[in-house]
């Protein structure tokens, strides 16, 4: 018998029976068996006691309340496996997810070869077997991500795919997108995840189009490239039905369009990358490639609209958009450098830093828990007696500086090294396994 006790934790679980209560949680063989005050549990492993004795607590306050929420879910990560395992790999990616407080992570299909059939989905599951973090495969929408023919959507779903996407490639063929929505709508409204970006308008773009791109002499990525493609996809969805998920929006106009679509009762959901809530295009003054992302960092007007969209629920989920890159593709002149940063380890801290004081903590946690699960059609997870323990432990108040010791990812392409952030995941409990954040558990 395996017993774990979480002592004096504040539960953040909107809609759950113990939301906002400070309690002890007794877990036996992976199931929550008792929740209450001062639970007697002789012999149980006191996980939170070891956390309060860590150097994290020593840096701040040993009496600080540790928070517990349902396990966080990330909707958008790239593990580079198969094909570029030296950049990440399945096990390394799942370890990075655990370090970021996630108990489940949806993995993109833009691998080499592309994950576009039953065998590809099976490969991902086989590589993730036995890990405490659940891998949720996203199948390719079109064969080879070429935008020419639909992939075998039904076969991928039967193999375990939770959604379909061509990652950052827009499906140019409107009829093909229409068929994708109609077909997936007949499969239980499996989400079709689109990345709104008109490839012709965006061709050659390096950063947000605006005064800063003009000043730096870099070709801009205009906001209209995003909104024009989004308008088309929303129009097709209004005609075809199904479930359209708009991934990593970055413009004020996109927020407004999705808000209007939801008001019309369209089954539309949306996500935003955590870094797009905090960083603006001014970060590129020094041509640092660690800030080169797609969609690009926008100006403050767009950022404020994104924050408002997170606050009012127009945006359902905050994602890591985790994209590992090696030095050969990232540490070079700005123009040829690859887009993307790693984000799993820092997503919560970045989002919490951006939104602190702007919205209640419970609403922010919803964008990491219930929101992502609703997008994928997964049942809600609550902290309740009799339920399997799927829990993230975190401290929303701790101030810390991100160092390489905080990174589990093989690739270190992040702009947050040396940056001061607020809020930190401490560990996860999932599949009857505790996995603590390395820098906390080791007293780094």
Describe the structure.
This protein folds into 2 domains: 3-68 and 386-441, Roll (Urease, subunit C, domain 1), CATH 2.30.40.10; 72-376, Metal-dependent hydrolases (TIM Barrel, Alpha-Beta Barrel), CATH 3.20.20.140. It is 31% helix and 22% strand. It contains 17 helices and 18 strands. Helix 9 runs parallel beside helix 10. The radius of gyration is 21 Å and the shape is globular. The relative contact order is 0.17.
| Proportion of helical residues | 25-40%
Q: Based on CA inertia axes, which overall geometry fits? A: globular
Strand content: 15-25%
Given helix and strand content, the structural type is alpha/beta
CATH class of the largest domain: Alpha Beta
Report how far the terminal alpha carbons are from each other: 31 Å
Extended strand count: 18
Mean pLDDT across all residues, rounded?
Answer: 94
């Amino acid at each position: 018998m395996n017993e774990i006790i979480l002592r004096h934790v504040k539960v953040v679980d909107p809609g759950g029976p113990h939301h906002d209560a400070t309690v002890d949680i007794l877990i036996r063989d992976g199931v929550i068996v008792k929740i209450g005050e001062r639970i007697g549990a002789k012999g149980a492993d006191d996980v939170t006691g070891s956390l309060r004795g860590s150097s994290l607590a020593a840096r701040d306050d040993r009496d600080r309340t540790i928070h517990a929420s349902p396990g966080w879910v990330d909707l958008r990560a790239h593990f580079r496996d198969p094909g570029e395992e030296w950049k990440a790999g399945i096990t390394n990616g799942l370890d990075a997810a655990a370090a970021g407080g996630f108990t489940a992570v949806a993995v993109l299909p833009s691998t080499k070869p592309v994950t576009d059939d039953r065998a590809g989905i099976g490969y991902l599951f086989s590589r993730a077997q036995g890990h405490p973090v659940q891998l949720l495969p996203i199948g390719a929408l079109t064969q080879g991500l070429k935008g020419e023919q639909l992939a075998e959507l039904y076969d991928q779903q039967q193999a375990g795919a939770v959604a379909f996407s061509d990652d950052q490639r827009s499906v140019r063929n409107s009829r093909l997108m229409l068929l994708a929505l109609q077909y997936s709508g007949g499969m239980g409204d499996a989400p079709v995840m689109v990345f709104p970006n008109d490839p012709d308008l965006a061709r050659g773009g390096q950063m947000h189009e605006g005064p800063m791109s003009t000043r730096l002499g870099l070709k801009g990525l205009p906001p209209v490239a995003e909104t024009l493609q989004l308008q088309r996809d929303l129009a097709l969805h209004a005609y075809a039905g199904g479930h359209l998920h708009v991934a990593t929006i970055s413009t004020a106009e996109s927020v407004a369009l999705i808000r209007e679509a939801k008001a019309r009762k369209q089954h539309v959901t949306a996500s935003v990358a955590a870094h797009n809530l905090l960083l603006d295009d001014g970060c590129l003054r020094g041509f640092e490639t660690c800030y080169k992302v797609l969609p690009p960092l926008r100006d403050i007007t767009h950022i404020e609209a994104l924050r408002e969209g997170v606050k009012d629920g127009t945006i359902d989920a905050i994602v890591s958009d985790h994209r590992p890159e090696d030095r050969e593709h990232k540490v070079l002149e700005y123009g040829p450098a690859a887009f993307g940063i790693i984000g799993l380890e820092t997503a919560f801290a970045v989002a919490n830093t951006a939104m602190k004081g702007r919205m209640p903590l419970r609403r922010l946690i919803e964008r990491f828990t219930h929101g992502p699960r609703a997008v994928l059609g997964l049942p809600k997870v609550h902290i309740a007696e009799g339920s399997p323990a799927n829990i993230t432990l975190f401290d929303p108040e701790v101030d810390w500086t991100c160092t390489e010791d905080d990174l589990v990812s093989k690739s270190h392409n992040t702009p947050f090294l040396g940056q001061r952030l607020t809020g930190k995941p401490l560990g996860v409990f999932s599949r009857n396994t505790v996995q603590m954040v390395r820098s906390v558990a080791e007293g780094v």
